[in-house]
Amino acid sequence: MAFPFLTVFIVFVVFLAIRYRSIANRRAKRMEDYWDRQERAEHTPAKDLTNLPYIKVPLRQLPLDEMEEDEELATLIGSIREVSHLPLLNLNGKDNAYLKETYGTDNFDYMTTVADNFDRLQMLLVDYAKVLMQKERINDAILILEYGVSIGSDISSNYTLLGECYQTTGQLDKIPTLKEKLQQLHMLLEPSILSYLDSLENQ
User: Fold this and answer.
1) Measuring CA to CA, how many Å separate 203 from each of 24, 170, 197, 198, 199?
2) In the predicted model, what is the mean pLDDT of the chain?
3) What's the number of domains the chain is made of?
4) Does one domain contain both 53 and 30?
5) What is the tens place of the pLDDT at every residue in 162-184?
6) 65 plus 38 within the same structural domain
7) Are residues 26 and 106 in the same domain?
8) What is the Cα–Cα distance from 87 to 19, expressed in whole angstroms?
9) Closest to 126 in 3D by CA, of 159, 164, 81
10) CA–CA separation, 124 vs 117, rounded Å?
11) Are 156 and 164 in contact (CB under 8 A)?
12) What is this structure's pTM?
């Protein structure tokens, strides 16, 4: 009776050894690929940046009145207008190696700044929309949040707040399209955001 058990045990040990070696090889390959990519990135020559698809904020089409009397809103409007004049590119999800490989090592600092400008813009849009909602200017908040969606914002509250606005204004028919756009971004919090939007639809 010991032989079948011994055979099974040996087969199991061999399987584990093969499995471990396979995992170790894949891990080593990933590390090798990573360092190869880093090496290539460090030696990528500078690229021409003049024709990049920079984002132009449509200031006249958004509720960004320079004569706004509310101090809190006026401050946010000023900040949005300020950042709108800076170079903006949506580089969400792009790591340092990508920036160096795509735009050149010499342009890395500039591209990082451009990415930071976009991050600041998308956060300001959400902050502005929150205040608009607090002041019951829901339609204005919708315009701001929809613009955030159009430029690919990866701020989760941009989508949850917009869903709330759609619910408040009886525009639940717009939530399915919002979910489709969200799914194109492959955000880490996508499942929880989709679940929340589903709950708004079903209330």
Assistant:
1) 49, 12, 10, 9, 6
2) 88
3) 2
4) no
5) 999 999 999 999 999 999 999 99
6) no
7) no
8) 49
9) 159
10) 11
11) no
12) 0.80
